[in-house]
Write a structure and sequence with these properties.
Blueprint (H helix, E strand, L loop, with lengths): L2 E8 L4 H11 L4 E5 L6 E6 L2 E5 L11 E7 L2 H10 L4 E7 L5 E6 L5 E6 L23 E4 L7 H5 L1 H4 L7 E4 L8 E3 L2 E3 L1
Parallel strand pairs: 1-4, 5-8
Antiparallel strand pairs: 1-5, 2-3, 3-4, 6-7, 7-8, 9-10, 11-12
Length: 188
Amino acid sequence: MDVLSSRILLRPSDLDRSRRFYRDLLGLAIYREFGPPDDPGLVFYLGQGLLEVSGHGAGPPGRSVMIWIKVRDVHAERAWLAAAGVPIVREPIVEPWGLIEMWIEDPDGIRIVLVEVPAGHPLRRDLRPVLPPGQSTGCRIQRGLRKRGSPALARNAQIRASSVPAGHAWSCRLVKPIVMRRAGSAVV
């Protein structure tokens, strides 16, 4: 399976209570907010993953947790999974929010949502504002900086080989650090 990203989906019985718990009590940083402004869904950073708290759970708490997996082609994944004998709980359909979603379940009944983001969907565009003056990521390819035997270059040679011209080196640094504040402490 060609996985592009993933997240845990939580459909709580009381959305507002769960938003306050994860945002205000646990202090999780918000990755994305979506839906109606008066009752938004939130996606939180969760270490190396994401936690989406949205909608309302219908049923016991165990059915309100799902795994969300973004794939390149949900129809190709459907064909592969069906051929492998994985039961398809819900066929791929275009949801009202524009994503193509299909459902399967793991052997214990945990719902897994396979999602394809079609071309032209807002999730395919970077809607973040331009960085303020004085801030940049400083990512660039520089000529003449490749050194023989460099451990960092050797470690990433396979990744960069096709995108960095011979005699050049790739570098990326944050020119001005981004500081996130949580309950009086700073994390850089």
